[in-house]
Amino acid sequence: MSKIFIISNHPELAATLESKFSALGRPVQKFSLPLKNEVPEIGQDDVLVIQEPIFINNNYLSASFSWKNYLKLHSPRAVLLSAGFGNLQDANYLDLLKLPADIEETFFQARMAEEEWIPCTTGGIDVQEKIFRFFEGHGDESVTDELHKMLRICKIARDELKIHEADFTEVRNELLLPNKLSHKWNVLQSRWQFYMPYFECLPYYQDFATLGSLFKTIAPFFANECSEESIFWETQCVENLERLKTGLEKIENSYGR
Amino acid sequence: MADKNYSILIVDDDPEFHQQVRYAFRRHYTFEGAVSPEHLEKKLIENSKFDLLLMDLVLDETKKKIGLELISKVSKIYPEIPIIVVTSDKRIETVVEAMRLGARDFLTKGDYEFEFWKKKFEEVIESNQLKTENIKLKAEVKKHRAQENKDYLFVGESPKVKEIKRVLKLVADEPEITVLLLGETGVGKEVAARYMHRHGSRKDKPYQAINLSAIQDTLLESTLFGHKKGAFTGATKDMEGFFHQADGGILLLDEIGDIDSNIQIKLLRFLETKLIRPVGSEKDIKLDVQIITATHRNLAEEVQKGTFRSDLFQRLKAMTVEIPPLRERKDDIELIMEHFIDQSPREVMSSEAIKHLIDYNWVGNIRELKNTLNYMILRKKIMGTPMMDANCLPVEILNYSPLPETQPTTNDFGGGTLVDAPPLVTPGSVSIDEEHALLDLQRIEAALIHKNKVKKDVALELGFENTDNLRYRIKKYFEKHPHLFRKFPIISSSYKKVVKFD
Question: What is the CA radius of gyration of chain A?
Fold first, then answer.
């Protein structure tokens, strides 16, 4: 029998919906955000009801669109319903102030994730838009753009030191400092920290969190204006930035376009 | 140190990117930079000799891909400069659009790897250089061919020439047929061969011509069929022969009557199998070459004497075209003169001079006419006259008196001649043939005196391609009219091996 999943940060609302759906005789599972180690395992023909907008980290976020993309990839026949207090009419919208008498009929009429439709929003910040900005190749808000610049500079430095046996001080003076590598690191970090609170409502937030742990490993090299060659090698700067890049590309290819 | 001193222009609004690329590749290339479309235009006006242009697509805060427009413009104005797009946007549609507009390759800024980028730069630069060289070479070949076509124009509107042209065009569309061109020295056998090449299905393929009598017997096989390295002393590398160079096209074998039996066998083999074997090679090579042969000899006679293979002769004479001597197409003389002097003869020559030229018997045919015109142009300059008059003519032409009734001569080559000349008629006791021989020998005697018996200079003055042809001409006259030689002591003493009185 297909399951019903509820994602809501409002405990009372979640409890009301749970009781309503349980009456249908189906298994019901509740989740609250952020999704740390537990991600709902939504199968084909299951139903996901997500609160719209959802309050997290002092922001009202609209995550329905991102979840639809996620379901389209992993459970295309699953049904996504946005549940909010707005007075909206849509096959995939559940008006919490006027819950339908025949919930099963609503589930039946709703479109599946694989179909072409745009989820209703009720004024929350569009998380998918943040995802686009995060990955955008050429822009002041892009994380990957800054990461690519840093990685390129670090690779040039690595080649100079390793292949041409250049003196580190020279490389630092001629490449790292003029290209403001430490500053770029700060920008990268601050942009990362800016986006992560928005991504906590995403089913793949854990992937971001794992990649984020690489920051701690690399940070020491950039701390003192990139002054120590030994730390450059110890922290495996190029390799870790490359891991970060590859990990982000994987997320972008799946959900970022 | 730069290993290949390529000059690269970076177009990017990010000064740091310029600095990074310059720094990473400073040992290999020289760089210049532009940060905006205006800056790029200025740079290209100052110097359009860049080997490569690295172009970002987004060049300002608007984030519009104005680089795409620039690719299109630069490719049109400076097609010799290849462009690689280097950008952060790696979407397929962007790549496709950039390539469609003229970019040669695409690199994403996020995927920097020194070796990969260097390889890309050099691949694009070097393939572009090859492409540019190829275009230049093709243009040169085209120009050369156009010049050759002009030089080897088959000039003539006389009925005989029109008929020959018609036949050559027909044969040109039958690329498997071997053609034998016959005619005296200087009648334009090579011109006819080139005419056929220009008008046939092989016109865009190679045309090669070789005078077989001009190549030493020992070198002829290798010259025709090529050789492998080490095949003989001096063969330091593999060499393609004329057959190979003419693959797909046409090969004119001039003076075919002069080849020895060894080459005759190999030529026959090629005609039957389309295979050649380079000297020193153990492998046959299959080639697609249409063969045209030419000779001034009577091949039927050579077959009779046993110096030319009968089976080869049968193959060669399948399609025989005889080019008439100039004296048999006098209607064309003025047209041919116009072709050589690039203007109407009536504008630069007196009527009397033209009459002399038309009346002359032209035993050296068109080659002799060309040399005569060059001589007259020079004489006109020396004499300072406004027109070329009779005084500019060579003495033998000025003093030449045409016979009241002339009959054309022909050779009995025994083949299926498509353009037949009437058979030789001997009026009275002195044949026209003998009359021509006498006049020709007079010219040769005079030239020997004039050139202090230096045979090479004599041959040149009289319009022969080489001294062998001159010797051959004397030999033939001696065989036919030995009694005439009593009148020419200089010729007799200079060509003792040929002129042997009993």
Answer: 23
Whole-number Cα distances in Å, B306 to A7, B315, B480: 108, 16, 20
Task: State the pTM of this model.
Answer: 0.57
A155 touches chain B (CB under 8 A): yes
Contact at CB, A138 and B24, closer than 8 angstroms: no
Residues B333/B323, Cβ–Cβ less than 8 Å: no
Specify the length of chain A in residues: 257
Q: pLDDT at residue B9 above 50?
A: yes
Mean pLDDT, chain B, rounded, equals 85
Is the confidence at residue B271, as pLDDT, over 80?
yes
CA of A185 vs chain B CAs: smallest distance (Å): 15
A156 touches chain B (CB under 8 A): yes
Q: Does A9 touch chain B (CB under 8 A)?
A: no
Is A34 found in the same domain as A115?
yes
Distance CA B296, CA B189 (A): 9
Q: Could you tell me if A145 and A234 lie in one domain?
A: yes
Query: B112: nearest CA in chain A?
Result: A152
The domain B328-407 is placed in CATH, from the list 3.30.230.10, 2.40.160.20, 1.10.8.60, 1.10.3470.10, at 1.10.8.60
- Determine phi and psi for B406, rounding to 5 degrees: -110, 150
Of A93, A123, A153, the one marking the end of a domain is A123
Within an 8 Å CB–CB cutoff, is residue A25 touching chain B?
no
Are A142 and A172 within one domain? Answer: yes
Q: pLDDT digits over B395-415, tens only?
A: 888 888 765 544 444 443 333
Q: Are residues A82 and A146 in the same domain?
A: no
Backbone angles phi, psi at A210, to 5 degrees: -65, -45
Q: What is the pLDDT of residues B282-298, one digit of tens each?
A: 889 999 999 999 988 88
At a CB cut-off of 8 Å and minimum separation 6, what does B231 contact?
B222, B278, B279, B280, B281
**Which residue in A139, A148, A156 is closest to B109 by CB distance?**
A148
Provide ipTM, 2 decimals. Answer: 0.82
Q: Which of A123, A147, A174 is the last residue of a domain?
A: A123
Domain that holds residue A207: 129-255
Same fold across B6-132 and B328-407: no
**Residues of chain B whose C-beta is under 8 A from some C-beta in A?**
16, 19-20, 23-24, 27, 58, 63, 87-90, 109-110, 112-114
Q: Mean pLDDT, to the nearest integer, of A234-243?
A: 94
Chain A residues within an 8 Å CB radius of B114? 155-156, 159
Contact yes or no for A137 and B19 at CB 8 A: no
Could you give the CA distance from residue A194 to residue A112 in angstroms, rounded to a whole number?
33
Q: Distance (Å, rounded) from C-alpha B85 to C-alpha B68?
A: 9
- My answer on whether A156 and A110 are in the same domain is no
Same domain, A9 and A79: yes
Q: Which amino acid is at A76?
A: P
A191 and A209 in one domain?
yes
Contact A138 B89 (CB under 8 A): yes
User: Are the CB atoms for A198 and A59 separated by under 8 Å?
Assistant: yes
Interchain proximity A152–B87, CB inside 8 Å: no
CATH topology of domain B6-132: Rossmann fold (3.40.50)
| Averaged pLDDT, A108-115 | 93
Q: CB distance B16–A245 less than 8 Å?
A: no
Confidence of residue B420 (pLDDT cuts 50, 70, 90): very low
